[in-house]
Amino acid sequence: SERPVILIKTVPTKTVMSEAKGLSESERADFKKMVSMVAKEKLVDLICSLAEGDAKLKERIEEDLLTDPANCKVFVRSLSWSTTSESLRRHFEKFGQIVEAVVVTDKFTKKSKGFGFVNFK
Length: 121
What we know:
By secondary structure, the chain is an alpha+beta fold. The chain is about 40% helix and about 15% strand. It has helices spanning about 25-35, 40-50, 55-65, 85-90, and strands spanning about 75, 100-105, 110-120. It is elongated, with a radius of gyration of 25 Å. Mean pLDDT is about 85; it is low at about 10-20.
């Protein structure tokens, strides 16, 4: 009987980070591409385990989360037709500092469409 042929591809190791300068632009792009292929769940687990032993990393992640606009925008529905952007802002100020509060209006009639958005800082 024939034995299966196994091909092994060797890849030369390469130092991607020098102590003095960090990653070059091309090395960073290559590394970023490689990391993008890792499953999200595995990346979350890896980052969590690294953050457990690194208070600065944990703080940076928390800060990024708190300042990401995607996490600061609230959709508000079922607004009264008389609600204005200013009254919406006044109502939500008690929950935190507001960057913007907008009641969405019809572009022709300028009447409220009954919903809006509040962006917190």
